[in-house]
Amino acid sequence: LIQLYMPLNFLGIVYREIRQALTDIERMFGLLNEHREVADAADAHTLPADRQMQVDFDSVGFAYETSRRILHDVSFTIPPGQTYAVVGHSGAGKSTLSRLLYRFYDVSNGSIRINGHDLRSVTQHSLRSAIGIVPQDTVLFNDTILYNIRYGKPDADDDAVFAAARAASLHDFIDGLPDKYQTRVGERGLKLSGGEKQRVAIARALLKDPPILIFDEATSALDSATERAIQQQLEVAARGRTTLIIAHRLSTVMNADCILVMEEGRVVERGTHAALLAAAGKYADMWFLQQREIQEPGGEGVVA
Ligand code: ATP
Question: Signal peptide position in this chain (predicted)?
């Protein structure tokens, strides 16, 4: 029986390896497919590099499918270096804003401009070089943690990777791992928690050092210490960059220069945390509801 078991066990291992490799390839293609939605214009120019970048959404309308409009007449300007946060119920269109800014899709109406350049008029390469994304769910490659952070800037030297890890408060964690930066992570290696994965994404973004940062907050619940830590690292990452935060927890947005409240694809309120509380509108309702839930854990889920 053991003679039969050994090869079968071996085949099982091979099968799992192949399945994992296919999962990675599917994920890669998932990303590539998104990139295929848009193409460079024949006369596309390079977005001029600048540390100071202003983002303008000008009467933006958008539909993934023509029959269902997702965004209606969305206008706002993020001045260079400021942080704008978007809140609203699930499905309000928050993440769609970040997908449009990265030009995974083109707007259906209106325009998005960076320093006055319409996104459709610049090369995708130059646009994406200017933007760092910290996504909700970070894809980790089946490789070392060093490789996974360096992915933010493949030509970065080791010291730059360590510095980014330090700034994202990952260095001490990595230093405590048996193989330190050579520790393998991903599906076949060490599994990282949601908070640790998001920190890897922050380190990648810091390494890339882009003038514009998009932070798509994880929807999954983090414990409050991790949440505070991520909040701090986000503030470090946002310093000096034009930042768009897609927020699911209102605690993340309190210090933003401006909060945009979205409902069914429209911006229905905007202002600082203090101004929106004083206005006693939808944001204030969400805030007081969320405060009550923090005090009475086990209630309804988060609202933003
Ligand atoms: P959440 O807080 O749950 O992440 P959100 O406010 O970020 O929600 P979006 O992800 O922007 O919402 O989605 C807005 C709407 O667009 C939703 O109704 C969603 O079903 C729809 N949608 C999102 N992605 C696609 C897609 N690729 N194709 C078609 N519809 C989509």
Answer: none
